[in-house]
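ingest -> validate -> predict -> emit
validate: passed (alphabet ok, no gaps, 522 aa)
predict: started
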Amino acid sequence: MDETTWADTVADKINGWVEPFAGLMGDIVFFNFDVGGATIMPIVLWLVIAGLIFTAYFGLAQVRHVKTALKVVRGKYDSPDAPGEVTHFQALTSALSGTVGLGNIAGVAIAISIGGPGAVFWMILCGLLGMATKFAECTLGVRYREVHADGTVSGGPMHYLRKGLAERGLPGLGKVLAWGSALMIVAFTFFGGNLFQVNQSLEQLASETGGGDSFFAGNTGSILYGIVLSVLVGAVILGGMKSIGKVTSRLVPSMALMYVAACLIVILWNITAVPDALVTIVTEAFNPSGVAGGLLGALIVGFQRAAFSNEAGIGSAPIAHSAVKTKRPATEGLVAMLEPFIDTVVICTMTAVTIIVAAGPLYEARRAGDDSINGIAITSDAFQTALPWFSGLLTLAVILFAFSTLITWSYYGLKSWAHIFGASRTSETVYKALFCGMVIIGALLPLMTLVDLTDSFLFLAAVFNIIGLYLLAPVVKHELGRVLEYIRRRDAGETDEEIEASEAAANAPGDGGEGEKVTVDK
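emit:
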């Protein structure tokens, strides 16, 4: 039996196990029913309603405090002696490296090909609402984090759900939600933060090196690609969060800027078609053509892809943001608000307009049922209309985006894994070996199988996390008031020492990194 036959056999066995499981999970998680001819999907509405409620409860924080968030991320209010591992900017780029990437490039194409251009409108709305949800969960992530003796930090929903709900007299519920959230994040880590990234970066590499005739289009080349990527990921994740922060703080901004610049060039090349594209996005959002479920069908697809792209409400981002150097949790909550805006409102929108003005025939063919056209191929085709030489750079960007997402999600998964199985050296070694091994599998699975699996675990994670966010929203509101007062006093010329002295004298809450108890109305 030659190598190719062996590789094909491995791929067939993996697909034979994963595809039925993906279908079963999709049927359970995305249960739906019809009302008046419209398809209702409760799990998607769960995220929509949460975004609306948090937007109202925090007084449109995503609009009112954007200027303050930009000041914080630039380091204006940094405290040199604050506990944590990374700066506000590094925490933001680390979190963005888990969101800005193939969800923006391939995910938008999938949304348009399934839900039509109108799905983009709902993606943008989901991004705006998700800013409030992200603010809440990342504030809690810092508020209830654990700073270890060696200076490393552990944070995320497994901590704030357990500690926060115990403070509010619900320790049993907190433990259940924390464990469930950690389990779903681990599952999504393996499929969405890992396999999907490998799959779509390989798709672009194969397209660039010969398409169906490429060495990487076959199972042997796919396995080889997975092995190489696995080794590179393993080399970085052994260094921990500081290593990840250093890599992503350099990698993500440069790749994002290059990608955005390319989108702008394609858009300008087709500038006369842009007004019609924008009109199409808005009109098809409310009156979509050829989309199953009509308006709600477009809405559901838009929110599904936006949730995959920006992860607001999932509980993953607080794991990265919790490592920030700060004494006031809401400073990082404000910074985290920028994440869905950059990811979904800006980058996803630019991708969508690029596709609509430059790759119409390809995404229409995908909508018509041509399953041979994968998500990233549509975006790549759009760039080639104006930048035929850009395909090589896009391939590099896609691989680097996938790489940055892989290393960030490896960290998310590790923290969640440690909550379930313990943080021993043996436990961490087992996790890292599994994660690197899963990289290889991602090169062998069909795209839509991975989409079904990632969506299922993503939305299940949101169920556990958002229940806790509702119950802990008063704590977030308290922290917001506290940090706004701190910023007012800093802008008035007071020093950190003066502010902290007066806070201590008034018996105010202390270091957000130590998880002190905050008294709020129940």
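The two ends are 67 Å apart (CA to CA).
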